[in-house]
Write a structure and sequence with these properties.
Blueprint: H1 10-13, H2 42-57, H3 63-68, E1 72-74, H4 82-85, H5 95-117, H6 121-142, E2 145-146, E3 161-162, H7 164-182, H8 188-193, H9 201-218, H10 228-236, E4 247-249, H11 262-267, E5 280-282, H12 284-292, H13 298-301, E6 343-346, H14 348-360, H15 368-383, H16 388-398, H17 411-425, H18 431-441, H19 469-474, H20 476-480
Antiparallel strand pairs: 1-5, 2-3, 4-6
Length: about 500
Amino acid sequence: MKTLQYKLLIILITAVAFTGCKKGYLDVNQDPNRVTDDNITPELIFPQAAHATGARQASGNFQFIENWMGYWAQSGDFAIQQDETTYNVDFTFGDVLWQNQYNVLFDLNRVKVKAQAKGDSVLAGAAMTLSAKLFQDLVDIFGNIPYSQAFRNSEFTQPAYDNAKDVYTALQQSLDSAIIYLGETHRASFTSIDIVNGGDTDLWIKFANALKLRMLIRQSEVSGFNPAAEITKIINNGGVLHAGESIDVNPGYNNSANKQSPFYANYGLTPTGAEASTSTRANAYFVNLLNSTSDPRLSRYFKAPANGGAITGTVYGLAAGNPVGAASSNMGPGLAGSASQNQWIMPSFESMFLEAEAIARGWMPGNAQQAYENAVRESFTWLGVPNAVSAANTYLANQAIANWTNAGATPLAKAKFIAYQKYIALAGIDPLEAWSDLRRLNMIPNTGYISVNPGKLANTVPVRLLYPQSEYTTNSTNVNAQGTQNQFSSKLFWQP
């Protein structure tokens, strides 16, 4: 792993108010306006790091998963990406994703270290919670990763890799500590710098609990796995996120250059009104799925083509014959609503689907059907479907893939039923969660989402990405110690 450096926004740098320096011989070469590690406080780093965490969720680095999962595909104006559509990914494929993820984690680590040094436990706990999400994402994409030696550059210029299962255990412990920290009284400054939850520490704790549950659910198919102790902690510490409790970030996004909300900036419109991504279109597979079930969320995910007509998708991996951009559908108002919209980090319904599965498995108390149906209703509400609750109730009552009577009798059958609806709810929002569920449960009942590129290496999507080329260049001893990976057969520790 390369040594990571600070990348602080100009807006944060210019916000620092420094006192005058002493007039003395020894001070002549000291610039009081120079940004250094000593004068950059955790309060200055945190807003940028929180924004960057949300921006990771909207990043084009994850677009390949949107495509692999059948949500999106390229318009006919563009040549298809051969490595992605054939699943023949190499060591360079995930390089930028890896580096960008660790860059944000570096900033969050500095917040934690500096906040702890100042005795600001609440701010440290918030940074630790965001870090846990990003670290889990890395594990779920690559497997073993540098964790315990990461960011300790003075000791480890080439950090060793930790076993993925051990990272999960360490993240659970880190979240336990974060929850304790967040239970303390926060400083007055926290409310203003907390551009995620506005100083609401109870919401931070529920977010931490939802992340803990997400890691437990991920391990549901591991033989002998027992989540009881961690579930008890979650319940005793206030439970997970529910309706109206989405985790999102907004430092004041607006329709100006470099100030738009990240997802809108990437997939909506530019400040001048041009389309931000002319290649990104609805996938015909997903459009057909929602049309076949009269799902009103379709018009929130996507909008009609520029030249008119019904919502139209393109076929993933098709080299020629797809409708061009003007004849196919891009992002709808439920995802790209405005330049000032909040950028989601974890939407409320995702947490609610996790809880529903935990109840269905007998891990948590409650009514599984009610929890599941509430999660579906929250998906409709979150996307802004008109008359959302009524529309969701109609969908739940009339569509076989949504009606609980078809959920099956066993906990595993119920889990797959819930996860399939979660897959539908996550389009454009959290494709990594959907990909993880697919690798864990194989819950999608057909393979229509698979690329049609005749050169594809398999009729299944890869189970992981290969370690990035930058690691082989700068951290070769440790990455080579991980052995040879295969994108189809080198399963992650939580896969059955």
